[in-house]
Write a structure and sequence with these properties.
Distance between the termini: 22 Å
Strand content: 15-25%
Helix content: 25-40%
Structural class: alpha/beta
Strand order of the largest sheet: 3-2-1-4-6-5
Shape: globular
Amino acid sequence: MTVAVCVWAGEKYSVDYIIRLRKSISRYSTHDLELICFTDRPRPNLDGVEYRRLPDIGLQEHQYWWYKIYLFSKESSLLGDCIYFDLDVMFLRSMDEMLQYDSDFVILQDFNRAFRPNYHISNSSLMKWRHEKYYFIWDNFSSNIQANVNKYRGDQDYITNCRIFLKNPII
């Protein structure tokens, strides 16, 4: 079974984004996806959403995208196939093809720079992975969080570096 996950940290997004994401997942997929929301915020009572607490890893408000890396941890208690969505992702058609894509790890091409030759950075706003195979992403990151935050421009640069190491596809 595949589980949908998102991160809701800080004050940038309201609960309306969680509601919209839940509705989009229901509307644009024929799969029965559970939505797990990792958050540092008070948990509203929304049907079809399970909340899990994000750990305090010393991030500042403008660095909260780094929490995506926590999703690769054993401590997140995710199991099996996971599909991640940023809260501001909008669907225009079925997501079933992405759910059925046969790979242990899939991530988007960075569409902001898609026309730059040999640009290899991925876009982490939508990712799919087999959870148990990628603990090392969090383990390596968490071994020195501040050094990794300083070395990479963001989570997608860090994930791209891990993906290149593994030669996983981008779509």
